[in-house]
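User: For a benchmark we're assembling, each entry needs the component sequences followed by a predicted structure for the full assembly. Here are entry 17's components. Please fill in the structure.
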Amino acid sequence: MTKARMIRAKLAVPINEERDHVRGPRAAPVTLVEYGDYECPYCGRAYSVVKDLEQRAGNLVRFVFRNFPLTTVHPHAERAAEEAEAAGAQGKFWEMHDLLFENQQALEDEDLMGYGALVGLDIPRFVRDMRESRYLNRIREDFLSGARSGVNGTPTFFINGLRHDGPWDLATLMAAIEVAAREGRR
Amino acid sequence: MITRNLVAFAFVLSITCAPAFAELGPKDGANLAPTDLERIKVGQPAPDFTLENMDGKLVSLSDFRGKPVVLVFYPADWSPVCGDQVVLYNELLPEFQRFNAALLGASVDNYWSHLAFAKDRKLRFPLLSDFEPKGAVARSYGAYRQQEGISERALFVIDADGKIRWSYLSPLDVNPGAEGILDALEALDSKREVAA
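Assistant: Structure for entry 17:
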């Protein structure tokens, strides 16, 4: 039997600026990727950590979010992910991403509709996209790319393409990012 | 006094139960080596077994001949890491099905525990009870932790002919994820396409 591998899991699908949701300075030496689920309470905590991190790390880090909804245990997660993607199609991904994580307890369909209005989406287009589940395939692609990369729960972070194992509190993530910045490999 | 009786009873039981374990294979006996990474190697036939699933039906590995099987040993229902692991595999069922593969989970938990656990996590694949004799199937795969009395967190990909094609032993407290399984299934698939 193969023993526990020494090599850490790697991001199987590299960041694509055209496709991925990227926040922060493009030229940052470190890329932090999160595979997350809008209904997962740990991801809710990670959301605040990442916000603080972005403040502190300044020009060191750009942040990428990919979907990893665990639909059987989190029945609202996939719909919420669809909503964020539908908002993304209208250039409002991060507004919606933040709003969803700040309102994790209210992810029913009528809540989602309200958030659409709140971030100022073109509502008829948004309603159509949601009804047709237009972004479901994309979410599935994210999920599979995560599974192929060794995502084993949510949230899972990758720092410059390598899975970050262990705790992800602000101090730990910050230290890991500083190390990655020094190593200088994106 | 009671303790002494209990010890004596356990001793008698261990002697009388030994022959049941002996059927597992030449390397197995009353003092089965628990985790034995070398017990089955890639390319060897996977030990067949028949275990009860959570519908109370008996499931044998040989029932799945003709399609790949992903066999997942995990230490226990309800523990947080396993929770994530089975939930992850549950989400990936469509992907496993794309490779025509069956997914089987196994632990030493009994039928009732499996039933409640599967219902709670909304699992859509069978959990098998390696309950009596305890851990016998895990032992035959070299994936049993004698001291704790639970199976290892171990993954096996078995091909359509019932041969082991990939295996992985994860540290007990680490969810191994699915990328190794998916890579192994993909390798099987490409081999089949080449052969066809």
